[in-house]
## 1
Amino acid sequence: MSRLLTMKNVWIEGRSDETWTPIINGIDLHLDKGEVLGLIGESGAGKSTMGLAAMGFCRDGVRISKGSVYFDGIDLLKASAAKKRSLLGKRIAYVAQSAAASFNPAHRIIDQHTEGPVQHSVMSRAQSEQDAIELYAKLRLPDPEQIGFRYPHQVSGGQLQRAMTAMAMSCRPDLIIFDEPTTALDVTTQIEVLASIRDIVDQFGTSAIYITHDLAVVAQMADRIKVLLKGDEVETNDTRAMLSHPKEEYTRSLWAVRHFKRPAKPAVHTSATPVVSVQAISAGYAKVDVLHEVSFDIHEGRTVAVVGESGSGKSTVARCITGLLPPREGVIEFDGIALPLDYRKRTKDQLRQAQMIYQMADTALNPQKTIGEIIGRPVEFYMGLKGRDKRRRVEELLDEIELPADQYFDRLPSELSGGQKQRIGIARALAAEPRFIICDEVTSALDQLVAEGILKLLARLQDELHLSYMFITHDLATVRSIADEVVVMKDGKVVEQGSKTEMFSPPHHPYTDLLLSSVPEMDPDWLSNLLAERGVENIGDAAVKKMK
Amino acid sequence: MSIVLKIIVQRLGLGVVTLFVVSILIFTAVNMLPGDFAQAILGQGATPEAVASIRRDLGLDQPPVLRYFHWLAGAIQGDLGNSFAQANFASFVGSDSGGNKASVAAQIAPRFWNTMFLAGVTALIAVPFSVLLGILAALYRSSVFDKFTNIFTLSSISSPEFFLAYILILFLAVLNPWLPSLSNIYQGMGFGERLEKTLLPALTLTLVVTAHMMRMTRAAIINLLASPYIEMARLKGTSPMRVIVRHALPNALAPIINVIALNLAYLITGVVVVEVVFVYPGIGQLFVDSVKIRDIPVVQACCLIFAAAYILLNLTADIMSILSNPRLRHPK
């Protein structure tokens, strides 16, 4: 095989305030023709920066300070802007994490597809349109003749991600950088996109750099894996070799993340009054019905995981329980007593008993307030503590979430990491001394190691304070590690519910089965086996077969 | 499309209500000013009899509420009444008091078209100029060109209008006699000559409104440059100019259109200083003169025109903003 891309001793820096801080510290990378390299690491590892550098591109406020990038003999760091533009899109293409954000909302999909081939004089507009339709068909997009003539907002996320892959293919590049292309997708959609990417890369013999934080995903896609940590290379090896014999401690710790599992708790007495009982609620926005007769109970000291794809109505249930969205029909009981459906009609004590932790800790904390003020507010509002008592209570809470009070009391949220912010979110919920907490995708924006820390914290708090959790998630690994009972939702209905053991052992409801089997596994043959098992030689039929 | 239609109907309805409220406000405000038309026109040495006689002739002796409804009844039927000032001159000359020639409509109409002509010429120069400058400033952001454009437009918006007008007269009419410094427009004038005489005031107004539109264009575009879809366009090898014009501008249109509408409304309603400097016979001067002599019917009519201009331009801007949003144009 011949060498396509050679990056030697690459150093990259990013500007923060007035100084340049290192992002990538002297990494070597090379790629042969037709090879797929997986780049993995947690957020902040510099994966995306490295991927963009392979295109000779830096985001604003980032610079390559040292090293060389040669693509097919061309020095990308010394090439003129015009020379680089003649390569980008034509010979090196990029597939971004969020297709929804990376397609221009003002133009139709096919107009954006043909832009590259036309401006690089690869094809005429008409040829490129024809080619786009063929690519859409290859990627098994529904209605390939027409789908390109829609605007991005008229097409679903998974379909857009495939359309973006088609767009990257439009000039038949030699190299494609895939930057977390499936991270924003549901597991069931992810499979289709993964399979179609792999299919088309094989078919055209394209080289690729596949960036992800998900080991199981990279195992399906890459020939070789490179692990990054905070801008340094940890190790590189062939996929199978690395999966079976990781050399470094850090690599092994990435493997181990999914192993956190709580011991099963004894079954609940059937006679016990549940803390929260949701009874046949139906709800919706304006004229659209989102929930249809959803019912489940949450008992003291237990965790009920509500799982389903995006759009299944998980978060709407949470909005109903908190009273933000009064359901049209149904009853919500707390300790056997029916709650007013509208939060404005609930007493302060009723409000205090149910708290919420949010997915995006970033946006859920007021950036202008210090940690002490953020946690102090519910302490004062619900518990009536002031002055020294309030401060002492906030310090206790900070201890609970394992952040030293003397260091964190006066800090602003912007000075904390993602995991620390989520801990502050937990402390704020605890401040009200609730009996029930809704956790809405609390770990999905976090790296696996950090997420595991949050899950362990929540588990410990549950044991100490007898809290009940409703855990909204689409990640079945999280469910496996923390849930006692599981409620599976689809299209606003509960399709299956029961204890975790029941849920994870067959027989399953077909939809639960689809969800479970779609979670990627470390085995590099998993995807191929799964597709074979589902009775399809290539991707496309999976889409057709899905959910029939 | 039904959304757009609904908005148009709704907003036009609200617009009528607004016009009604404006007319009450203006009527009350002018009545609260010290003195009335009779005193203003007869001056210091007027005898009480003369004042009373004029008041009687014009109906000013009747209670304000009655006068307002009288005016309103006429306005609804399209009759904006007669100008006090014109009626008065007619009676001095001794002709019949049948003041059809002195109707407000007849008095305002030519002035209104002059104002629209000036606003139109200015808009045709200023809007493309500002948007282009804004695009170029965004393209070459932080360059010398960008800084120069910012300083130039900011200093022109910060200078008094008459000062800008005199500078332009100095350079374009006095030192280099290219353009006439007086805009004495009259009816029946040829288009070319009319345009020539309108050019200097139009250029002055261009300097006044450019900064706002140009800076909004620049800011709205730069605001989008960090978007993932702009990065995507750059990673496809798209040229910087095309990135801005094709990928950023269509998504930045809404705020730009709104600022343009505001500035166009200003061109119709607020250019009295420039009119005075160039002796341009527009509606602004007429308005100020009418307030001075408490010529209520004319003041009312001018205010209604101003209010209508704001309402219609803002409505147009909103509709164009909606049309520039593909999510609303092409629902799922």
Note: The first helix of chain A runs from residue 47 to 53.
## 2
Amino acid sequence: MEGKGIPRGVPRRTLLRASAAGAAAAALPLVNVHGQTSSGKLALGLWDHWVPAGNDGMRKLVTEWGQKNRVEIQLDFITSVGNKNLLTIAAESQARQGHDMLSFPTWEVHAQAEKLEPLDDIMGRLSQKYGALNPIVEYLGKVEGKWRAVPAISGSQNKPALGRIDLLKQHAGVDIQEMFPANANAGGKAADWNWDTFLRAAEACQKAGVPFGLPAGQFTDATDWIGSLFRSFGAELVNAKGDITAKSDGVRRVLEYSQKLFAFLPNDVFSWDDASNNRALISGKSALIFNPPSAWAVAKRDAPAVSEHLWTFPAPAGAQGRFTPYLPYFWGVWSFSRNKGAAKALVEFLSERDQAAAMVAASNGYDIPPFTSMTDFDTWEKEGPPTGVVYNYPVKPHHQAQQFIACYPAPPEIAVQMYNQGIQAKMIARVVQNKEPIDRTIAWAERELEGFKRG
Amino acid sequence: MSQGTLSVPTEPAEATPRNTALKRLARRNSTTAFLLTLPLILLILGLVIYPFAYAIYLSTLNRRMTRFIGWENFTFLLGRETFWNVVFQSVLFAVSAVLLKAFIGFVLAHVLHALPSKGQRKWRGMLLVPWVIPPAISTLAWWWLFDPSYSAFNWALMGIGVDPVPWLGQAGWARFSVILVNVWYGSPFFMIMYLAALKSVPDQLYEAAAIDGASGWQKLRHVTFPMMRNVISITVLFSLIVTFANFDIVRILTNGGPQDTTHVFATYAFQVGIQSGDIPLGASVSLFMFPLLAIFAIFTLRGVNKRSKEMS
């Protein structure tokens, strides 16, 4: 945590000049951003970025804005390690005091909706300027027709495939650079990148001693890729109305597929956490994982020989399409904030294209803006080696993919429980580890889901 | 308000000045005692009584915390398969870990007690190390030993030609692993308590037993054990409470997995309450520990009181 008083460090003469000018300008509003007047202090609790330079980039933007608008900023970076951000949100929500603006992870906007300031005005202006948003942020950030938070750039991430160019070509005959090069055209074989090809590649890599590193525990990396796998098979456990739809051919098919796939994965993936897959890739023991570019960034620092062979590319497609795992963050303003005007002005400032580009650059391309029109920043083209390693990290039109959050489109109050309790991963574990019949596993899932529907 | 302050009767006029001064002193002492305990009372009120009462209040609310629903959270939990798994695992975890800790602590205490006093302090210090390291840190070290891909244990096993063990990936092994770490962490506490109890057993009792021709086992059964029973009961009670409420070991090692088989009350309450946004249900899960432990505490403390009365 850190606190930053912007006016500190201002030279004495400047301060005196400002005081003299301030007396004359006392009747004028100190801040005038889109007609909102604000001044005074603003306490921010922003996500502590995985990428170290990410915090510096954010601090710079916020400091500049504070100085320009003469708002004293107190900036805290709150880590998601150990769910400290969730604990902060829960504590501030109960105490009805704390920061003015916070970073809210995926499901928290719905959970805290009644205590969040509506931000429809900001979203209206941003949508007008930058066009279409992906539907997942609308699902997560809009509650009963009102935007309760603005989809954040910092911290929002995709989890596409991140694979070894050399190992996949050598052992599985899959040329990922040819399929998804670092330009806006898909290769000839991009359409063949589906779960069947994936299964064959998984088998080949397992036989070569570099199995795919796909976690299947109760951590988000597991839930996210498994959620996309289910969706691309049309395996929906709960529909948008909240009806349980687990007893379906799609669910049976995805569980049958999982039985085949998990035979080619390390047998301990059910206990992997969010770091296990990264370690498997960085240590050279695995040919493919699903992850943001943080794994590549660490490999670049610690294992350059590995990082030079890494390439980001979309998830495989299934019968229902191609779905890229996506985990957005949101910026929200508490309804009990003492400086709502300034908080809203800052949220809008941070969401604009220039600031988005700066955040993406500072995070080595990790951050994903919510607007489709912001997927063309040159950071993703230039990062390397190999140059273009993260070109396909944001979802581009030629990927023919959609961003997707596991458990969508179940109503968020049900989906959050399905997501955090890893129900899809547990279903796979039951059929793979316990060798339970698929129908019995589905019946178990139905009973669990029935409990999640409790109001 | 201090009882002493309230109950001191008015002094009769003929009381001697010395007597009055003593009573004043007594009164002052009780006031001082109350003031000295006041920080602790406030601490218990603020950090135990208030959160407990607040948890009870929360457990009576609906998911959105907008409506009073009485016992519904509890009845809902009682109908959940996963919750009963959590109850089973919590009892298995706490009871087996406490029994193992008590046994290991008992053996270690006897071994230490038998050592010459010169070298005893060194061994005592070394054996206490697991207990003085913050559990979050030592559990991380254990996690590295159990790590799915790079387990040091598996590396050693493979070195002697044994297949690697999925320490945290299969229900049985994962349960064993979390219990093992808890036993490793908690045994020194039992050891030090039992050692203190052993040192307080008068030597004359052993001498009398020896004169009566008692064997080593008979001395242990008829002298040592009865003299340690109160300490054993209190230690087991205390440890059972702490072990039932354990969070960090399970959270760090398995996060409740695989398939919820290692969840204990605290980790499940966290997952349901904080991570899944259902704070009232999380509060209800954590409150389930209370009646279980309260019943056990009542029986244990009754036994301790009974024995204390018999001995006095």
Note: Residues 301 and 307 of chain A are 9 Å apart (CA to CA).
## 3
Amino acid sequence: MRIVIVGAGEVGSHLAALLSKEEQDIVLVDNDSEKLDPLDAKYNLLTIKGHPTSFETIRRADAANCDLFVAVTPFETDNVTACIIAKSMGAKRTVARVDNFEYMMDSNRRFFREHGVDSVIYPEYYAAKEICTALTHTWVRHWFEMWGGELILIGVKLRENAEIIGLNLKEFSRRGHSFHVSAIRRRYDTIIPGGDTVINTGDIVYFMTRPEHVDELRQICGKTEAEIHSIMVMGANMIASRLSSELGKKYKIKIIDSDRKKCQKLAERISDIDVVCGDPRDNELLMEESIENMDAFIALSESSETNILGCLTAKEFGVKKTIAEVESIQYIGEAEALNIGTIINKKLLAAGAIFQLMLDNDADNSKVMALADAEVAELEVKPGAKITRAAVRDLKLSHDMTIAGLIRNGIGRLVDGNTRIEPGDRVVVFCLNGAIHKFERLFN
Amino acid sequence: MKPRRFIVSLNWAAIFRLLGVLVLFEAGFMLVPTIVALICHEPGAARAFGVSAGVTGLCGFLAYKYIRPTSRDMGRRESALLTASVWIVFSLFGQIPYMLAPSTHLSFSAAFFEAMSGFTTTGASLVESTDNLSSAVHIWRCLSQWIGGLGIIIFTLALIPMLNSAGGMQMYNAEQNKIAGDKIRPRISSTARRLWIVYGLLTLCLFMLLWAGPMTAFEAACHAMSTMSTGGFSTSSAGINIFNSVYVKVVMTVFMFLGGVNFALVYRASTGQHHTVIGNETFITYYRLILTATALFIIGILLNGAYSGWQSVTIDPLFQVVSLVTSTGFMLSEFKLWGPAVLFIGLLLIFVGGCAGSTSGGAKIDRVVYLLKYLKNEIKRTLRPNSVMAVRVSGRTIPMDRINNVVAFLCLYVLIIIAGALALTFFGVPLQEAFISAFGAIGNNSLSTADSIVGCDYLHLNAAAHYVLSILMLTGRLEIFTILILLSPSFWRP
């Protein structure tokens, strides 16, 4: 697939690096050669220096022959303009990153489509959604619902009190639970486990299960659900504002930021929240704002380090659930080890959205979540696909992926070695980085 | 396979396994002279090449089969090391036939020199008389130049899907010129494949044209390979003088000229993007340089009273200029009659070399263009210290760090010539000879022909001098930095 990515910022360069590992033809466009040069030397892709909204640049990137045109510069208008130009030249599908919720709404989608922007992505909105999910399920690290909740993928960090520590997967499945252990994240690696893999303390284990077994899973993992009423948010940025408008009525939200202008703006825009201007790293201020009584602490400042440390401080004060935005991919592993509840990363959320478009041109037929070094995808099996030819155990799937569950006739079920996948099933696949391009051969 | 989290130690296993794969390709190439030897009824040469191909293939196979790296990750250090070592390993295996073949029987150091001279397209030779070589050896000499012309790594990138990754990308960067920096396709393997298609088709055209002329099919094949790669090996000790044909000179001039052009540019031109060629300042400088040098040659010839018919003021100087500037190194026998001024201009041409991203050697015209523009700015700045200026080439601004790199490169280039010449004098080479052969070796240009007034007769060099020149050739071919970083302690102890 030929993919043009405009904008070598955080999201753009992450996407380019990720997709070039997926054996796609990547052309990366940016106006700043200082950003492009290191990527050009390091990754298997083509870089073009030029202004993102210039016809000449887009022509040089050969947008006319690309399958996917992704505009992810920091400026929404540039992104939309670039998409319009690319579409007019013949790009098959265009995606623009926006930062305005209006543009995401279904009622306005037609306008964009008519003007040449086929889809929009809004990483800050995805982040807010992710935080909402994390607040409703406080005991999990990841919660990913498939097919309206028929199947759920749950990532849980296991501690000494979990019943299943020390078991290998064969013993675990002999106990007759209705869970599928899809993957284990151990320190810096994600592993697709085999029958002999032992579950250790500190692992983040990804279980696939049906909604009625969630409580059972929580018990064997030794977790309790915490009720959330009040939330403290550090950083008055886009995500915080998005979050407040989604949740302002449901929870008591207090937002702290040191920038008075930002605070003022946020307070004017959203009515149901409490905005405090001050340094969120100042413990006295936090105590003044009664951090001890908070149920959740969400750190969304620009610096990943501040967010991680902020969450640790909040834990000290007894806050039950902490959520940190960690934009540096390397720090995600460290942050996970430090017991910070949920980690939000805009780049990964955007990558998930792009993978979704890559797998399926209709976009509504598949769903992808990107993790730090793995992806989970839900997709439909086409008639005659390779995967339908035999039972799962006889398929000799490569070691970097596993089929966790499937949805047949609207009913979710788990997959084991004897399951035979049929055309029309929707399967949930857990795969390590760099393996998504293998889907094409398996499922189509 | 998992990415390695810590990359302090070099991934030796991955390097050796990949070397094994590459050596397997070399073994495959050795089958060509073996077949030629069988066809031409040369039992000695057939045995020599058969044994060489067997040994090479076996080593490659064993490395490929039994070395199991725990990680496939190749960092920048591994890539640089692999790229440098692949040229050495290719020469080490490629020299076996020269040691075994009855028509050469070179010593170890001489055979290594000969093989390195082939792969780096230098074209210097230690064979006493090229006329007595068997056809298999001729083919192998020219084939090795042809492989080395565009680059060993870039050849394998086109064929091994395993290298179509970030690691392959870095190897490409270590072998290719950073100045040209032209990827023509997003993925490195398809870039490499297209460059090889251009190269292969040009070679095929040249072969047809030469064959249509006075050459036999065998001579045409050898000369096509050594001309397109701007290498300069010939099937005769008299070089191309033996054909004494204007047709051959014209055809070769055209193809040597093409061999000195950036292949990405040739590809773009062939796909109809002519504006990229017309607007390319390097290309414009390249042909202007050739035209100017030819004019100066003609003046030199006339002043020196070497006029001997219309050819001596038209095609002869043009052929010689193109041959020198592209580092091919074919010498016309008349060259020595043209006088010292012409010789001096010739040396300058060797220094400058062809365009970056081509098969030619030298310091590369691109760098000279950058340097001249930069110097112009600096001179202006002395008068108006506050003016802000950018170095602009082909309508694009060149970032300052690249200019720094160019200046550093040119300084190193000169320093290495001096160091190389100094080393040669230690091994008993006379001063002038030492300088000129070091100069030629790093520019991948063979200045030595028995009947030329310049350069040295490589035949009486001792083993140490062979190695010095071999290293110089490799340093020049990989454009200095890739070799030089291997010599720095920080490479081994990061």
Note: Chain B has 22 helices and two strands.
## 4
Amino acid sequence: MITLTHFLVVSACIFCIGLYAVLAKRNAIMILVGIELMINAAILNFVAFGKYDKLNYGGQVFALFAIVLAAAAVAVGLALILNVYRHFKTINPEHIHELKD
Amino acid sequence: MNVSISNILDQIIASIPLFKPELSLIIGFIVCIFTALFLEKRWKNSTFIACMLTLGVALYHLLAQLSTTGTGFSGMWLIDPWSIYARLVVLASTGIIAIFLQQRHPKNNGDIYAVLLATTLGIHVLSATSNWLMAFIGIEMVSIGSYVMVGYFSRNKAQSEAAMKYVLFGSVCAAVMLYGLSLVYGLTGNLDFTSAAHLKGLIDAPQAIITLGLLFVFAGIGFKLSFVPFHVWSPDVYQGAPTAITAFLSTIPKVGAIILFARLYQSWSSTAFYFSELSSWFIIIVALVTMLVGNLAALRQQDVKRMMAYSSIGHTGLLLMAVFAYQDIFSYLLFYIVAYVLMNLATFIFIDEIEQQTGSTSLSSYAGLGKKMPLLFTAFTLVAVSLIGIPPTIGFVAKLMVFTSTFSIFQSSGGTGSLLLLIVGALTSVISLFFYFKIPLYAFLRGNDNPIPSVVNRKQVSVMLFIAYLLTILVILFGIFPNWLMEMVS
């Protein structure tokens, strides 16, 4: 029997993996992948909680919109990373520091 | 409760009149894409004209909504004085930004107007809803549009770097906020943060999860408002982006986000339970740290745009203080928003005008320019005086209102938090004197050792400069007669 707790534990794990990727990876595209994992963890939560919301299906609708918005944000992000690669010939955020105090 | 499809459809059709300004923005967005694709080559500026027409039509429909209230789309869309006046401010300043873009980037600018309109639509959504789904859609629309605008004109390394930092930091904050929202949704089963079911769910929930959920949600709003500790993107992005885009980023998205935050705070701080206490302490601590960090870091900046980034972080702290202080009356918060938008738009137009003539935004390049451009620097100094909050300017009146009402909260309930806010607010206003006055100091009192890099003497009257002088006059006028603005918004 798979209960709500199982879903929550899995999504918490996915969220932590995504957060780790964001903090530890040295490649802008891997950071974007980490962000995707975090968003998908949240979407999993929404769908799992949505089972108990029989009135409006708010969770499921939220999940659909979140998928669309995440895709749009990633598309813009990839375009901007490509632009950075053209100027710097690297996408390691540690090596990109034209702007600083 | 099974509502039939026809009932839902009836309700949607009945709500459409409330949505007219946004509908015209949507139509204008599509029209702008088409004119940028097909007409721009034949008629220059056709997209700009389409954009301005759209803003005009949206303004017309919005003015028709004045002094009406109501809700539409099953309570997802709120029409009340907050949303109407906030959207008025947003539309007017978007018009100024569109002219700014048209003046500064006359070539290859077709799509930027479409993106500008889409971003404006996102801010409208933010300022007219109390539903988490709409709020998240609004935040993401504003964010994605802003990423595109920062990266759109990227010619050099600094601009592309600013765009990448912005998109990575922004997406992480949005993802964290989404996870927080999923927790809040799970605890309450309701997405409207003013509803009774939502508050009841928060009251019953365990403290650990609620702390996590609330802090995660505040992270997403904090990114848009750029309060500490989510402010680290703003100096880099403000410095790296073209000045017209910086003027946009520093003013308009903050209007929507602060209105959303004010609604949220008003609803969440209304009970006597754990989460209300948590959100009021959160807002006090964040306001304190934001004011301190913003103003102290601005002291040692050598680039004007970077300095303005920290200054707007400091003003965000004061805006949070205003949200904390005015829980029932909305007009004071709106007054501060109007003051902030006027001052920041004028400042960035001046910075851009000087950048056009000298090719630099560093403070030391202003040395001795006061004699070359006396009128510009006099107006710039007046706006700086207003940013500090010295009479007779709008900045003074706005700050005075925030302080008096925080003081009355302190007198009535006597919390340590409001006392600390008062002390730190006054202290940081004094600190801000030192960095804002660097501008007239360099311009009028410092001589320039190097010959001034050939000031281009353009004959034609600059439209932007005209608008900036107009904004400066408004800054002084509303400072002397604040009643005019107060009567308008109340």
Note: The mean pLDDT of chain A is 92.
